[in-house]
Amino acid sequence: MIDFGLSEEQKQFRDLAREFAEKEIAPKAAYHDETGEYPMDICKKAWELGLMNTHIPEEYGGLGLGVLEGCLIAEQVSWGCTGIGTAMEANTLAQAPVIVAGTDEQKKKWLAPFSEEFGLTAYCVTESDAGSDVQGIRSIAKRVGDAYVLNGSKIWITNGGVADWYFVVAYTDPEKRHKGMSAFIVPRESDGVSVGKKENNMGQRASDTSAVTFQDVKVPVENRVGEEGDGWRAAMAAFDHSRPVVSSAAVGLAQSAYDHAVAYAKERKAFGVPIHKHQAVGFMIADMAVAIQAARLLVWESAWLIDHGKRNTKQAAFAKVFAGDTAVKVATDAVQVFGGNGFNKEYPVEKLYRDAKIYQIYEGTSQIQRMIIQKEIFDR
Ligand SMILES: Cc1cc2nc3c(=O)[nH]c(=O)nc-3n(C[C@H](O)[C@H](O)[C@H](O)COP(=O)(O)OP(=O)(O)OC[C@H]3O[C@@H](n4cnc5c(N)ncnc54)[C@H](O)[C@@H]3O)c2cc1C
Asked: Which residues line ligand 1 (CB under 6 A)?
């Protein structure tokens, strides 16, 4: 049987996130966009309400919610502001490899504290010559006794400037290419860790994106996630958990742009009638509604699969590419519905237009998602 209904608990989380987005996020979204100030107070409030780290298993003090619940929360939070949503959600990506590949001790040490106190983490893979092509990383971790000495420079790291610890991928054996990569948990306060300035990005300006450099950082062996050579697998497995959530955030942005477009199309008159009565505008909004619902259903399916222990790599790529493209298209069309006002910062859709673009870039570009889908079709 197929059931598109949500359980009472799922509805409660969704409604809690919606209320939080309406009261705490949306009113401050323009301020954080304008100033680029990190929304630390908002993140802390979200944490107090249980809207962050929801996927940490119950045996480690977390709520143990599924990816689908994470998606429901992410959509609502991102309806309020995707920059603030990204600041809140970056923990999901950094913690996922530890949930997937970490030991019991690592989970107790690095995940359980998030239930006791507020904290942030960051996922450090990308380097200046290695974004889509992760094998191009140059970071090296050399084993010396009971520790590794880590050297490397990561860029574009979400929460890089505010994280308490980093999930870092580096080569332990470069000759073996992706099978020679290993993953590590590196505390922020380790000697040799330095953080660059916050990047001045086009959109999602509330979120912190920074370079993080590791110079002769001593990382104990017990901080290695998985065996030597498991780093690639741990880093990529995280995406099966995080891509549905990121895609759901793109749906939230599209829903917000749609809501603004519908309200404006009812209110704004041209040629003596509300503009939605002009079929060209009405159809544009109808197309938005179709795409948003289709994207949401792809997100839900990809989340449902992994929550039921099934492989979701292809469906997570479906969701990511379609929701990302939908966010961009809907935000673009919302600007069109607003006409000249859409081009102006006094109106909300200009920000959504800038914020949307990143969904075709981070967590694997739209081209990389299509490569994954192509591979799934022809190579599996
Ligand atoms: C705001 C922001 C936050 C980010 N957060 C993080 C983070 O927290 N952690 C992290 O590790 N990284 C993060 N990233 C990095 C992000 O994942 C990369 O930017 C992304 O994967 C693309 O890599 P690149 O920028 O090097 O582009 P490139 O890989 O250089 O790609 C350039 C263009 O070429 C295309 N392309 C590349 N290879 C192919 C191919 N084989 N076939 C077809 N097209 C191809 C790409 O799709 C893209 O359009 C973030 C980036 C941004 C902008």
From this structure: 122-126, 131-133, 156-158, 201, 209, 358, 361-362, 364-365, 367-368, 371
